[in-house]
Amino acid sequence: FTGAPLPEGPDTIVIQENVRDLGGGSVEVTEPTVQGRNIRRLGLDFAKGDVLLPKGRLLDSAALSLAASANHPEVGVVKRPLVAIIATGDELLPPGSELGPDQIISSNAYGVAAAAQSVDARALDLGIAPDRREAIAALVEKAVKAGANVIVTLGGASVGDHDFVHDVLTGQGMTLDFWKIAMRPGKPLMFGRLGDVRCIGLPGNPVASLVCAQLFLKPLLARLGGRAFQQDIRRARLGAAMPANDLRQDYVRAVVTDDAGALVATPFGIQDSSMLKMLADANGLIVRAPFAPAAAAGSPCDVLMLR
How many CB atoms sit inside 10 A of residue 56's CB? Predict the structure, then answer.
């Protein structure tokens, strides 16, 4: 039967379906069988000392079955990282709220959580902290107690009178690595470490927040989760002319289409970082280097694919 050891002498197995019982211990072979068929030799699948699952391999169904077949009752894994998300701002209300004067819906946390989950991280939304140091500090402490590997703050990381995130985090012992970068959108980005916890201060503008999550948060969470991560950047040609760039690297929302096997990236005309609909409609970001000269339609470009 399948899986049984081979008796001494034979070198081929004829499957039961291809014989007819003649009685008296005799059978008739109804279909020819090539010599050596239906034999699985010892060590055919793997041998002692083989590396069966390299470090970083996702434990999918085949990997789990392979580990079990090699008689491993358990394997070492990397814990899925936890990112705690804190929105800040007196003007913010959750979706479903009735807006009053000078109020807006808090939307960034949902996109940031989805970005985290797309690289198999866990997301903990701690809600909205008003523009008070003690309120922000309380949610930071809650994130640390929850075992967050990464704390993401939304807004409050610039230089306005109500931007307290930097002061709160450094006051709680965060070592600041950098604050403000030469890119658009996303200039106010902040990064530091609070003990073993990474802290990322994302801009409050929705598009800047989500673009920075794509560029910085997703690679970090993937690495913490034991995975490799590489941005999907492809060569394309411009579907419309673009002006010269200034000192910041630009990530320009665009629609990328296929034209007879060549990608064409057409930028949206307005690139205000508050415009989420345009980001939802875009499937790529044209990457423009600092001080890039004006480019005519049809010029080559790099595009970071979003979907």
Answer: 10
Residues whose CB is less than 8 angstroms from the CB of residue 115 and which lie 6 or more positions away in sequence, other chains included: 210, 213, 214, 217, 218
Looking at 204, 224, 244, the residue that finishes a domain is 224
- Asked if 197 and 144 touch (Cβ cutoff 8 Å), the reply is yes
> Are 125 and 184 members of one domain?
yes
pTM of the predicted protein model = 0.83
- What's the gap between Cα 76 and its chain centre? 22
Residues 189 and 287 in one domain: no
Task: Check whether residue 239 and residue 274 sit in a common domain.
Answer: yes
Within-domain flag for 259: yes
Residue 204 within any structural domain of the chain: yes
Print pLDDT tens along the chain (307 aa).
Answer: 888 899 899 999 999 999 999 999 999 999 999 999 999 888 889 999 999 999 888 899 999 999 999 999 999 999 999 999 999 999 999 999 999 999 999 999 999 999 999 999 999 999 999 999 999 999 999 999 999 999 999 997 666 666 789 899 999 999 999 999 999 999 999 999 999 999 999 999 999 999 999 999 999 999 999 988 999 999 999 999 999 999 999 999 999 999 999 999 999 999 999 999 999 999 999 999 999 999 999 999 999 999 9
Range of the domain at 31: 1-48
